């Protein structure tokens, strides 16, 4: 779950606690080109105030008008479809004849919202099961491979924690990487026990930790929504982080270095309690080969590779424009 969707649920909870009626809309399925992915959510208050989105804006305007005219009053969960015809797709601003299938529901009880937000804060991936006939909502543990699904009886949406990026080192490259990762909605944590670097780290909305990298990796209890990037060039620090990160469920573990330095690092790691499969998880030299030279360009290459891995896109296909998307 990204920070935008978290804010949608937090706002919906606050509005209900203030006594407002709130309607929730979820993108269930898309055909053709669509502005938002399945799972995206929108909450609309009874006075028309909006948080979140399901399209570029035109569908939101239509939904707000329906809310203000109380056209959803008294209705249970239901599916809505926008963009069935080319004319309707054009009217609602859907590109290339796109079509959206939305789930509409009125938020009554709020216990599930509080529990879901708590689960996400604790980095738990959760499936929300909605019984369409009764409106009953249950929450269950889920995994990274679970996907949104719907039939005539139930709708399952999957909500996970924000993606986390742990960066070892608070140098110049780390600053660019952190800024770009924030733009991609990562929670960024910087680890550097060196005072000369940590004392001058001042990038807003990042968390600076001064502990030793191996201890920090263990304390964070990394999950499969976490990535670790070691950028200090100091084996005493980078390798400490890698020794623990490679044994964790983190979806991406990488380290900066040349091919020769990476080969030496792999040999060093073999001296510790890591098996060949764990060592093979290491991404290095880190980043996609895009000819990057400056710190910003290197940061782009790192995030490009990290994004491909996160989206389960085969790295050998990143330059193949004919390759189809591959999902976990």
Summarize the helices and strands and which ones pair or pack.
Layout lengths: L2 H15 L4 E10 L9 E5 L4 E3 L5 H11 L9 E5 L3 H6 L7 E9 L3 H11 L4 E6 L5 E5 L7 E2 L3 E6 L4 E5 L3 H12 L3 E5 L3 H4 L8 E3 L3 H8 L5 E5 L4 H11 L6 E4 L3 H11 L6 H5 L1 E2 L11 H16 L18
Parallel strand pairs: 10-11, 10-13, 11-12, 13-14, 14-15
Antiparallel strand pairs: 1-2, 1-5, 2-3, 4-5, 6-7, 6-9, 8-9
Question: Overview of this structure, please?
Answer:
- The chain has a six-stranded parallel beta sheet with strand order 12-11-10-13-14-15, sandwiched between helices.
- It has two domains: 3-159, no CATH class; 164-317, NAD(P)-binding Rossmann-like Domain (Rossmann fold, 3-Layer(aba) Sandwich), CATH 3.40.50.720.
- With 328 residues, the chain is of the alpha/beta class.
- Helix content is 34%, strand content 23%.
- The two termini are 16 Å apart.
- Helix 5 packs across helix 11 (295-310) and helix 7 (213-220) runs parallel beside helix 8.
